[in-house]
Amino acid sequence: MLSFDENRDFPFYNEIPRMPRIGWFVLLISMAVSYFAYQYVWSLTNEIVGSIFFLGIMLIPLLYFSNWDYSLFFKKPTKDELILAAAMFVAFFIYTMIMSNFLYASGLASTGSGEWSIATIVALIFSMMAEELMKFIPLMFLLRIFFKYTSNRRLSLGVSCAITLVFFALLHMEPGVSIFSLLLIQGLGSAFHLYVYLKTKNLLASYISHLMTDAIILIMALFGIFGA
Predict the structure, then answer these.
(1) Full residue range of the structural domain in which residue 190 is found
(2) Is this model's pTM higher than 0.85 or not?
(3) pLDDT less than 50: residues of the chain
(4) Torsion, Cα of 181, 185, 186, 192 (10° steps)
């Protein structure tokens, strides 16, 4: 039986600690800025530098408005947290295989660009944490709003997670990719990594699970084992 710190809670939603309104505004704006900066900087330099900007533009204001208390988000993963991260990586991989076969059989499979390189894998070190923040920031913001007006933590968390997963799926929209495919793979599939955070309250744990997933898929794609 895996055990986790039951005393650790999500930050901000119950104003412990308090996030000022200007903080939420800056964080939400930083998401949009980082998303477009990623593409722009990448086009001027390379994917690795672009991914660093992608992460930094969100992480710096998050830490600033948290009085640089990184322990609110990150802690050294425990053995049980690493086991959970690995288990959810395997679960996501199995889920993806099943859903991919279903989409291909249904004629709904996506046809993304599929342009991968070694630099793409290195860039994952930064971009996967950035993607975790792209889920974490709206999740905490929505949780704060719903909890404020309902005082129901479970309901607020459930609704916030559903909206966040749909939002995260749509972030991956590109030509040739069906919305249905996005909602099944990037949306519902990301619930495995989100579950790691919900159980551990530790972004490093969900980051590890997410990083393992994308790294393995990209490595397999590079060797022609898996069609990304």
Answers:
(1) 21-222
(2) yes
(3) 228
(4) 160
